[in-house]
Amino acid sequence: MNSTSFWATLAAAWIASAVGTLLSWLLTAGTSDAFSVALRRLTDRPAAVADPEIDGMVFVQLDGVPYPVMQWALQSGTMPTLRRWVRSGSHRLQEWTVQLPSTTPASQQGILHGTCDRIPAFRWYDRELGRLLVANRPADAAVIEQRASTGRGLLADDGISVSNLFSGDAPRSSMVMSKIQLARGSRETRRAFGRFVLRPEGFARSFSRTLAEVARERFQARRQRLRDVVPRVERSWTFAGLRAISNGLLRDINTAVVANEMMRGTKSIYVDYVDYDEVAHHAGGARLESLAPLEALDRVLAMLEQVAGKAPRRYHLVVLSDHGQSIGATFAERYGTDLGGVCAALINESVVEIDKNVESLGRAQALVGDLAGAGKGSQRTVRNVSGRLGRQAEAESAAAATGTGTMVLGSGNLGLVYLMEPERLLMEDIQERYPALLPGLVSHPGVGFVAVLSRTAGPVVLGAGGTHRLADHQVDGADPLEPFGNDAAPLIAAVTAMKEAPDIYVNSACDPSTLEVVAFEDLVGSHGGLGGWQNRGMLVAPVDLLPADVRIVGAVQLHGHLVRMLEQLGQRRHLVQDEAPPVPPGAQMRSPGGLGD
């Protein structure tokens, strides 16, 4: 063997060994066990608190998880941590009925601020401002929260809001849309990013999991196409990247921020994990690939439970969802035209339709915006990442700027029709100016009902076979709300009476055998209106803090119960006495259960 071949063989062996070591490190550093070890190491010095006798509370929102899905997860054992809490008797799983609209903005404002008022959908045309408001745009979220805030929100007593749309009046926030300041970002977010993501093991975890999540999404999308799974929607590379952020990097940063706050002794923490909701929108909420993120989120709960054992005060954990998810094909796919096209044909005028989903882009913007510093490089990165969302916002604003014509907005299976008059048109006005519009909408097979405001009768629901006057519960012909459960009437009455409500609400039909709805956005899993599981929220709470057999209708009532939990722990004593939330009219009309039971 000559010297040349010897040294070549030796070099090849060293290179192979180095590559193998690097791959092994990447794979092991990316595991949950490795992250848990890093979390424990970096949270081993609890801060001293002045009032350790007051217990803390961590509210963990699992975005979009319906009550039936959580039941499946606990029964199957795929969420062992949460299952152990429930089986031990320390926690109880129960259902709560989500208000209309069944969206994150309405639910989070209700849960965090105690009111769902002035939020008619995920996005809407605001007549007062003369422009669109979209809840996951920082400037718009700030306007929405300013309207709702009283200074006594859920987190007002030494709390922190993490990765939410609104702050709940918390003194500090991290990745909260209404509080994003692109000029300087969030110190809490940057600290967590630096301590967990920029360290070698954190970088390895983020890098490996990002690649794995993108690969997993592309494989699952291709498998749906090959198996001809229906209903389904196109799943782009853009969504794959956004999913990698929400189910990888964002999850880790959320966990790091929450763990750090627990070690600081922060009294109340509310964090939103969007993993399930992100996948369910594009895959379908009851499908296996959507259920898989719940296993990862259960490991997050296990980590937080471990951190709680070392924290300077005792912590209680509450797990809840802001809404559920309903499955179904898109309106355009099923009927060959979108809702805007149907309206245009009925009124013989051009219609502007805005139905592009921007939830995922908003989440990415919140993360990048909070990581930004004051430097030019950071701001350039923010502008680049926010560019696509900004272009979409500009296009939507331009479409709405004329103030003339008709505009149709999609919010899951809830459609909003604005006839763009200076004042909201009432039912009698619509019937006079556009005589074919309401009859044409209710007779369409993809429409379950429409809701309008009458000058003489108040909120009225119209269906193909009858009408339902919500003020006095008079039904003429077939009740259009019968397929949607008894809670539907008071929920629709409340949202239709809002001054921000559109001229016409359109709720899609719901198949009684499969509970499928028809989405007005390009989503196979949707929420926003009534029908299916989207109105069936879930709550897992300590049994000693929540009364047994309590029935919760709407996020405002849920807010009241969460506030009382904090008060039982000794929090909020310096705040003005909180008033009990009102019970929606007709809330006792049915036994506990979900809409459409």
Question: Structural class per helix/strand content?
Answer: alpha/beta
Mean pLDDT: 84
Sequence of strands across the biggest β-sheet: 10-11-12-17-13-14-15-16
**Shape category:** globular
Major sheet: size, sense and barrel closure?
8 strands, mixed
For the record, what is the CATH homologous superfamily label of the largest domain? Answer: Alkaline Phosphatase, subunit A
Number of domains: 2
Please count the beta strands (DSSP E, at least 2 residues each): 19
Strand residue percentage: 15-25%
Number of helices, where a helix is a run of at least 4 consecutive DSSP H or I residues: 19
Radius of gyration: 25 Å
Query: Which CATH C-level class of the largest domain is it?
Result: Alpha Beta
**Proportion of residues in helical segments:** 40-55%
CATH topology name of the largest domain, in short, is Alkaline Phosphatase, subunit A
Distance between the termini: 80 Å
Structure description:
The structure is a single chain. The chain folds into 2 domains: 24-327 and 532-568, 3-Layer(aba) Sandwich (Alkaline Phosphatase, subunit A); 331-357 and 401-526, no CATH class. The chain is 44% helix and 16% strand. The chain is built from 19 helices and 19 strands. It has helices at residues 3-29, 32-42, 67-76, 80-88, 104-113, 138-148, 187-197, 200-227, 237-264, 275-283, 288-308, 331-335, 339-347, 359-371, 376-401, 427-433, 437-442, 488-496, 555-568, and strands at 56-62, 91-97, 123-126, 131-134, 159-162, 172-174, 268-273, 315-320, 326-327, 351-354, 406-411, 414-418, 447-454, 458-462, 466-469, 474-477, 504-508, 525-526, 536-542. It has an 8-stranded mixed β-sheet, sandwiched between helices.
